[in-house]
Amino acid sequence: MKKLIVFKIILSALLFISCSAQKNVKTLPFATDEVYFQRWIGGQRLTGGGTEFYIKFKEPFSVNFFLKKVYFQGKEAPLEKKDETVYTANFVQRPKDSDLILDQNPANEYGNTAPEISKPKFKLIDNEAILEFEINKKIKFYKISNIKEKELLAYPSAKPRN
Fold first, then answer.
1. Pick from 98, 108, 120, 154: CA 20 to 30 A from residue 64's CA?
2. Where are the beta strands (DSSP E) in the chain?
3. Domains of the chain, earliest start first
């Protein structure tokens, strides 16, 4: 009986900690002007592709507000300041240049590396993101929905010959 009570107390404490750690705010302290993402692909072997996340605010921030990260499509990336109101994050996907050995005999597959599987921090749909920011030295999170997708950027494989 005592073990069950201790288990319930520990479980309650863990739930309380996890809920308080993810304090979502209802509105951002600064209004956004534009939020979108744009996928891109490289035109040469092993250049890969990725997604650029773009957020533009209507006015510059105060000194006690800092954008940290964005969580988007199961990944996270730091936000980089482009100017006073524009921030971007790049989610790069590089193909691996490795030969995978597949064989009926598992011993012949020795040396294959296992795929990296990571669990996303937040459960989001494809056009949602979570902004992590710091205000007055406190970390907060804000969910952005209905993010627009711009047309794919396909970089050429080589410079055109004229």
1. 120
2. 32-41, 49-57, 65-72, 75-78, 80-81, 86-93, 129-135, 138-144, 148-154
3. 27-96+119-162 (2.60.40)
